[in-house]
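mind reviewing this stuff:

——
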Amino acid sequence: MADFFTRRIVETGRLPLFCFFVAFIVTFVFTRVNVRLIRANVRWWFRNVKAGDVHIHHVVFGVVLMLLGGVAGFALPEARAWPNVVAAGVFGMGAALVLDEFALILHLQDVYWTEKGRASVDAVFVAIAVTGLLLLGVHPLGLTGIQQPQPSEDVTRPVLLVVYVASVTANLGLAVVALLKGKIWTGLLGLFVPALLVFGAIRVARPGSPWSRWLYAPGSRKYRRAVRREERYRRPIIRAKIWIQEFIAGRHDLIPPEARRRRSATGRTGDPAVSDRRPRRRPPP
């Protein structure tokens, strides 16, 4: 195991990426455990951070850590391996805190425990998948760098370069088509496995995707086919994904204990300002 780690991670220069990967996963798991314990009102070392009446979200700490880790990674010389490894770990911790509240950044409102908050878990899953593929040595679109040509390659080098550029352009075009068809995972992972891009670009688009809105008329044959595929294949996969998300990150759309207490104390709305505005009875004429 140690020889495998040395050969595949250390000798290939992927040790900083490995530390980023580990720090990212550990920080995300710890953060989710922490917020679930806070939500359940369990006695715990960590509590919500507030400055007066302002709740400080952990995305703020994530931005600070990403700034520290990123600047340190650029400032430190490459010869000093271990400081760069530490900087990569700090950057991974910050990235986990930021992506854990990706939905807050996307919607510009606190949707952490709502259905919209699942976008944060999706973003974390994408980051873990992409980083894991990079650790395995799989490069997006085969971008491994272009070596300098040897004198004997002066004739074949331009031809190979044209073929390479054409291949990258075609794969990017297929990725755009897959994303427009609403196949996010296929489009992203297809950058590493181009065969997935062909599959995603040929298959029918998902209902509600930009491709479907532009090219599938309501009630048309392709639209009905897309709806059938969505109900038969996509819905079970989505339910399984939601189960995995909620197993790892906690169940969304549940009323926290504090909100339940406020609701029981102030009425059905849970908002004193709303519950106090009860309609007054009109005096009899």
In short: The CA atoms of residues 207 and 227 lie 6 Å apart.
